[in-house]
Structure formats: structure tokens, C-alpha cells
Amino acid sequence: MDIHGGNIYKFQREGKREILDYSSNINPLGVPKSLEEGIKNNISLLERYPDVHYVELRESIGEYNHISSDNIIVGNGATEVLFLYMKALLPKRALIISPTFAEYERALKNIDCEIGYFKLDENIQNEKRNFYLDVEKLKKEAINYQLIVLCNPNNPTGSFVKKEILEELNEFLETNNIKLFVDECFLEFVEGWEEKTLNTLKSKNIFILRALTKYFALPGIRLGYGITYDNKIIEKINSIKEPWTVNAFADLSGKIILKDKEYIGKTDNWIKNERVRFVEELKKVDYIEVYETYTNFVLLKIKNMKAEEFQKRLLEKNILVRNCSNFKFLSNNFVRIAIKDTEKNNIFLKSIKNL
Amino acid sequence: MDIHGGNIYKFQREGKREILDYSSNINPLGVPKSLEEGIKNNISLLERYPDVHYVELRESIGEYNHISSDNIIVGNGATEVLFLYMKALLPKRALIISPTFAEYERALKNIDCEIGYFKLDENIQNEKRNFYLDVEKLKKEAINYQLIVLCNPNNPTGSFVKKEILEELNEFLETNNIKLFVDECFLEFVEGWEEKTLNTLKSKNIFILRALTKYFALPGIRLGYGITYDNKIIEKINSIKEPWTVNAFADLSGKIILKDKEYIGKTDNWIKNERVRFVEELKKVDYIEVYETYTNFVLLKIKNMKAEEFQKRLLEKNILVRNCSNFKFLSNNFVRIAIKDTEKNNIFLKSIKNL
To answer: What is the ipTM of this complex?
Structure first.
């Protein structure tokens, strides 16, 4: 399981106690106060099984997304929903747009699916460096597959493909009987995301993955959900799903935090300002190449040393970054870092300047 | 999912608010205070992914059971562990000792396993009525299967098969290359359970299922575990397991409550005394037949009406019981009720006397 970032426990067990964890992309505002209060006042929820149908939870998620709760599947983190979708769809051949999050590959291998990898092109557009999706090229490859998997915004590159482009792509895919799976777990960090989510297309061909992990700083609570207009997939998922996988507090959290306008406002404000500032500061560091980001992390290419070495040296300063060498199509010079609050980001900046 | 008990949400949605839930078998002492404090003081745990290897949690469970943490698999409730074991073992033919909990069947159907059902014999031994296991008969049937599934104590009958009997059975099964899966989720309600658990046999042929759901009154937290001395099964499960399925508070709970001697002492004291008293009182009700129980629930046969009618009439008095008509080999006259505290049990007794 060391394919993942966030392996801070390993470092802690090895005796390093005070680590600034830049490998994990979590909202630095922390757990919403509304949820903290909610949990403290509802400990006795643990004495019951959660509602096996999660009716109220799905209604709350539906309201947040301006859609019906019938289009929502909840799960134990985005991970469970991802695995369930793959088990329900059972594609024989799937194409993963890469480099990207490793868990899609695991979920597809789990159902013995043959996997292809579509390479994002690294280049510079409008003076911004990133990995761009060549849609025309993708269409040509896509016809050999039954499912296309896209992470948007993409982890670890931070790149984002616009709705208009994906709408056209989806029309092509639907015509050719190819499904589109889009992981939008980092979407809420994109300005104006409510207009940019693919759920506004209401296409039966698309399955959207979301989580409360990143935006609401709750990786520990394990609550993810899927959105789809394909009733058959929902029925199939419900038939294979294990009961009660979302625990009582995860259930509660979804009913509370999605309505927490104050937290949402503060978060939007933080990411909007700090992202620009932090990226500009990072660009001033001469030995790194900074990639454009639409979300709450930044991909960096280290020009004069390997990612492993960079990670090691920063760890000596008690900062943990994500070495991206094991991402497909990324060389051993890439690391991914979180965007945190100004104070921590300044510590990070100072540390890499003195490396 | 209405095959399960605990469908109190359905009744609540239908407008009945104050229901005494005798369909759910939860320790009436409620959430341990130690955990309540632990959660309130550790809300920020939610800001991190849990340790994907759950090292400390498994160590705590190991200590509680006097075994090595290497023999432990943790999961999102007993359900996940059950499903994982079946997916890892992939038996072609399995025999479920019945009537019993419906989830084994679901987990086996999920892997397209052919299922047989071994019927427990209803009779009276030592003046006590229950469903008894005829081991010699079981051995004869068992040889046609690769896996035997036993719930012990058994849900919903409350019966319990002694370790000596199962030790001998397991030797026979092992010789014939047949695995034994034993669900001990209700074991801690059996007096002297530490001597009676099959984990003391340290047999590679056995997989034991446990949960914190019942004894520690935490169905909402979703924490279960498996115990096995078969390293290959552990490796296989780890290879197919989704990451982080145990959430931060479930992880925390396992580290706190298993050490809570006060709660454990109180619980043992309650069940020991109240079980005897409640069962004796139930026996005085002339229109029900009471089955011997080793755990925290009681199976009842309603002599003069169907379970459905009995359930309906009690619901009018705001008490919910588990109609057991859909358990294999049980007629439509059976209900299962929880053992709660003296006060609630007296309300229950009064209600059924006046039915």
C-alpha cells in the first residue's frame, strides 16, 4: 500500500514525530467546527446501525449538488465507490488518462480488466506549463476501449479539462458505446466548480466520483459518493454493495458540513488567494519547475536532483513531500506538494530555498 | 437490504418516533465513556488518513485476545472481513449451519459459491429448548464441501457449541481439507469466553470473525476483525483489500475500549444477572416458547399467532422486535428480542403480557 502518498505513519513509527506533511492534500482549515460540535453532541449515534439506505445523507448530498438523491451512491470514502463502479460495470478494456492516481489501476486489476494508458502531453500553453489532454488523439485510441478513466482536476498534475471539451468528448464516447468515469474529488477547489462539474451534463454515459476527504479536510472520516444518471448502474451497485459501509459519524458529517456556508466561504477564500501567492513564490526558486494548478496541490519538477534525494533532504528538515517517481509517465524528478496556509507555506518555501 | 434486523429507520421515517428497539442486539450500557472522551479530545484525527496498515489498532486487538497482531485483519465492521475472507478463499461449495445470520449467504453468493444448508435440530436437552448441532451428521455432509460456516453463539437461536466439540470437528475437517469459518461476534457475552474462543486452538484451518458492534454497543462505528493463523489467507486478503476502510474513530475506538476494564466489568455483570432474570420472566408468559440463550438476545416462538402479527401488535405499543420468518428453517412463528436493561425489559414484559 506504499503506492500512496500520506505514508506519514511510517515516518512517525521510525521516530520522526513532528512532521509537516506536504504529501497529503488536505484543506488546512481542518475539520469544520460545525462537525466537531455535531459529533460531540451525538456520540450516542454510535449505538445504532446507520440507515442502510442512507436516505437523509443522500438527500443532503443531492441538495448540495442540486440533483436528486436518486442519482447518488454513498460509500466508505471515494475508494469504495470507485471499486463498486468497476465491479458493477465490469469493462473488459479500460483506458486510464495518465499520469494519475494509482487507485483506478488497482480497482480495474481487481476485476481483471485489461488496462491501457493514455499519455498526457507535457507542454506550455499560455505561458503555463502542464500536462494537457489531446482530445482528438484520445478519440482515436478510445474506440478500442469500453471505459475511459479521467481524474479532473488531475492528481498529481493539478491540470483541469474544461466542461465544454469533455462534453464533446462524452458525445463521441456515448456514440461509440464507451463509458466515461470522471474523478472530481478535487473539483471543489476549482473556482466556480458548480458550473464546471460534469454532473450538469446529466449524461447517462458518465459516472462522477466525489469525496469529502479533501475539501472538508476529512480523510479520516471516509465518506465518498458517486453521481450518475444511469439507473441500471445504481441498481447493480446496490445489489453488490455491502451494508453499512458508511459509519455513523461519516453519515452525520455529510448532513452537516455541506450546509456549512462559513467553512465553504473561508476555504474558497484561502485557496483563491494562497494558491496564486504560493505558486508565484515557488516559481522564484530556480532549481524547480512549477506546474499550473487548478486545485490544492502543486506538481514540481526538480531540475538538479532526483525526487528521492529532494524528499530525503526535506525530511531532514521534517517536511514530507510526495515522491511522484512511481506515477506512470513521470520521470524520477517529480514531487507533489500540498498548498497549506500562508505560515506553513512560508516554512516550506524557506526550507527549499536553503536546501 | 430489509433482510436485516435493525430496520428502525424505516419505522421512524414512517412517523413513529419513540421506538424501543428490541430488534437490535446492542449492549444497553451504550457507548463506553472512555471512547466518548477519546473522540471529543481527538476530533483532529479526522484530518488525516488512518494508518493504512492499522499497526497500533491490530496490536491493541492482539493484546485483548492474547495473540500476535500478525494474526489479525481489521475491517469496516465484521461485514467487510466476512466478504474479504470469502473473496480470498473462493470456495466452490460451502455449507452454512442454519438457521443463521443471512449475511454469510450474501457473501458466498457474491463469489458465486454453491451453498448448502445444514439444519440444526430443534429439541430439548437438560430441560432446555434450543437448536442443537448434530456433529456426527454434520461430518457426513461436510465432506461434500470446502467450507463450513458456523455462527457461535448463533444468531438468531442464541445456542452455543462448546470448544471441545468444535475442536474435534475441526480436526476432522482439516484432515478432509475443509475450512471452518466461525463467527464469534456475540462470543463476549458468553461467560468465560476467553477460554471458549476457537482462537485458543491456534488452528490454521479456522478463520474467526469478531466485531466491536455488539459487546461495546458500537454498531455505528463499523469495526470488525478476523483472526487466523493461516498466513496465506492474510496475504491474500491484504492483496485484495481496499485501503483505509476503517475510519479514524473506529481506529481510535479499538485502541481505547478494549482496555476499558470498568465497562467490561459492568457489562459482564449486567448480562450475567439480567439474562437469567429476563429469561425466567419470559418463561412465565404462557403463549411463548423461550429458547436457551448464551448471549444477549433470545429467540421466542409465538404459539398462538404469527410472528408478523406479534410484531405488528408490539409496534402499536412502540416496541420493535425482529420477525425471524425469513430465516431458513424457521417457521413464521419466531421472533428474536434483545436483552436490555432491567427497566426496559420490564416494559417489554408488561407489553407482551397485555398483548
So the answer is: 0.86
